[in-house]
Amino acid sequence: MQPRNMSMSGVVDLAAVKAAQEAKAKAEQTRAEAARHGGSGAVSPADLVIDVDEASFETDVLQRSAEVPVVIDFWAEWCQPCKQLSPVLERLAVEYDGRFLLAKIDVDANQMLMQQFGIQGIPAVFAVVAGQALPLFQGAAGEDQIRQTLDQLVQVAEQRFGLTGLTVDPDAEPGGDPAQAVQEGPYDALLEAAVRALDSGDLGGAVQAYRNVLSDDPGNPEARLGLAQAELLQRVADLDPQEVRKNAAERPKDPAAQIAAADLDLVGGHVEDAFGRLIETVQRTAGDDREAVRLRLLELFEVVGAEDPRVAKARRALSRALF
């Protein structure tokens, strides 16, 4: 699987929203399940540095990045700067006590991964958070610079993705897999079916699968996010973007026209435009029309996530518009 670029500037598109919220929900679920079943979910300090190849990349990097930021050290035996950098990263991985996982990839043995990340020279250090890749630095770097970069990575992973890292126990047995102690959640099969339906374009099937989960567990965060996203994609699937934009421009007080345009705004990654459009429509309308717009805006908040600062800002603006 080819990594996707992730900007640390906070730009949100629908794919990033989905990855972030699913990662956070999965991490919270894993911790809760481990606690329920009496497991600590702890790893040994020795397990904070792992060797990864093309065969294990999906499991050891992409999947693990849903619970902890994974820092990738691309290196080679013949690379002298790598021999200086790698020990520093390994020491810091232990020192940071589970706030990131260090994955070491030998570029000579894993040319495909090197090409997928677009690496032109080594040493090169990347991170993967919630399945999304971002470059950290390339070439020689001082320890102070490395620490600053890692601090920023850890902060972004926690604030935007809810990833607080791994629990480390010096007495844990090296090589253990804490996930094995966690039993499968009661809705995992349904949620997995919903994700498969969503990824295959079966939006109706995804909507129904998420609703099935929510009928038994109304507060399930992954199902709530998935349903909001699936319903959004379902609404815009048959829209003519040009006609929607024309209608919205010609009928600024028409709730249906503005709601359709806001849906397209969000799918296109224009989060603030979508929020601003509906807040302005709330100000122009009253009664049932205003309530319909307000409810759609709340649905879009659900898609983006309460932790996003744009949601908090839009909520304040909505309150001013209403009261």
Q: Characterize the largest beta sheet: strand count, sense, and whether it forms a barrel.
A: 6 strands, mixed
- Which fold name is given in CATH as the topology of the largest domain? Glutaredoxin
**Class from secondary-structure proportions:** alpha/beta
**Number of domain modules:** 3
Order of helices and strands: EHEEHEHEHEEHEHHHHHHHH
State mean pLDDT (0 to 100 scale): 82
Q: What is the CA-CA span between the terminal residues? A: 49 Å
Number of DSSP strands?
A: 8
Give structural attributes.
single chain, 323 residues, alpha/beta, Glutaredoxin, Serine Threonine Protein Phosphatase 5, Tetratricopeptide repeat, 3 domains, two-stranded parallel ribbon, 8 strands, elongated, disordered N terminus, Thioredoxin-like_sf
Structure description:
Helix 8 (221-236) packs across helix 10 and helix 9 packs across helix 10 (255-267). The chain is α/β, with parallel strands linked by helices and 323 residues long. The strands form two sheets. Strands 1-7-6-4-5-3 form a six-stranded mixed beta sheet, sandwiched between helices. The chain has a two-stranded parallel sheet with strand order 2-8. It folds into three domains: 4-164, Glutaredoxin; 184-238; 239-323, Serine Threonine Protein Phosphatase 5, Tetratricopeptide repeat (Alpha Horseshoe). Mean pLDDT is 82; it is low at 1-17, 34-40 and 178-184. The protein has helices spanning 14-36, 57-63, 80-95, 111-116, 143-161, 188-200, 203-216, 221-236, 241-250, 255-267, 271-284, 287-304, 309-322; strands spanning 4-5, 42-43, 49-51, 70-75, 101-106, 124-129, 132-138, 167-168.
